[in-house]
Amino acid sequence: MAVAETVKVLVQGTWIGWKVESNWTDPFVFLAYMIAKPIASVFMIGLIFLIGSEAAGIRDAEFFSYAFTGAIFFIYPATMAISLGYLMHEDRAKYEVLKHIYIAPESIKPYIFGRATATAINATVSVIAAYILGTIVFGNFFGLDLQVNALHVNYPLLIITILLGVIAFAFLGLVLCAINLLSFKLQYSLSEYTTGTMFLLSGVVFPVSMLPVVAQQIGNALPSTYFLNLIRLALSGSSEFMIDLSYMVLSTIGFAISALLLFKLAEYRARHRGMIDRKAEY
Amino acid sequence: MSITSEAVNHGRVIYARAYVRMKGLLREPHWSIAEVIIPMLSISAYIYMYQVLNAPNEFLGFVIVGGAMLSFWSNVLWGMSSQFYWEKETGTLGLYLIAPISRMAVLVGMALGGMINTTIRALSILFIGIILFPINLVIGDVYALAIIFTLTVIALYGMGILFASLFLLYGREATHIADLLQEPIYLLSGMYYPVLGSRFFPLAIKFLASAIPLTLGIDGMRQLLILGGDFNSVILHIIGLVILSSVLLPFAHFALQKMENVSKREGRLTLRWQ
Question: Is the Cβ of A135 closer than 8 Å to some Cβ of chain B?
Answer without folding.
Answer: no
